[in-house]
UniProtKB/TrEMBL annotation:
It is a multi-pass membrane protein. It comes from Stenotrophomonas tumulicola. Keywords: Cell membrane, Membrane, Transmembrane, Transmembrane helix. This is DUF350 domain-containing protein. Its main location: membrane. Belongs to the UPF0719 family.
Length: 136
């Protein structure tokens, strides 16, 4: 009897999932460290704008990581392209932040949900474009 899932295929799954999750964790940590506000603290305090923005950042990072894992030829290839996706998301965050704070203090800190949605939208849009472009 032939099984669809073999030992080597399961190990490959574990390796690629591990690289993907590690890349996601590292990237979202960097995003949280470079932002001027403390997203996790704000989320714990019930700041919806911070929660929306962070969710968008996670989705925006996960989309290209998904594409990279689907198309990569090795774990190293997946890790490199995942890091490139993270850098692109950091640039997207910088652009959205510059637009949001153009007229005053940080809108995420202030709980402005529309700023959170805008930030999330930019992150997801950039993630979709990255996902389509990252085909090794």
């Amino acid at each position: 009897m032939q099984y669809v899932i073999s030992g080597p295929s399961f190990l490959s799954f574990c390796a690629f999932a591990g690289v993907g999750l590690l890349t996601l964790l590292l990237a979202i940590t960097v995003v949280a460290l470079i932002t001027p506000h403390k997203e996790i603290t704000l989320i714990r305090q019930g700041n919806k704008a911070a929660g929306i923005g962070m969710a968008g950042a996670l989705i925006g990072l996960a989309l290209p990581i998904n594409s990279v894992i689907s198309n990569s030829v090795s774990l190293v290839d997946a890790a490199i392209w995942g890091a490139i996706a993270a850098v692109m998301q950091l640039l997207a965050f910088g652009v959205s932040r510059a637009i949001i704070t153009r007229r005053g203090p940080d809108q995420i800190d202030a709980g402005n949900e529309s700023a959170g949605w805008f930030s999330a939208g930019v992150a997801i849009a950039v993630g979709l474009i990255n996902s389509a472009a990252m085909v090794p």
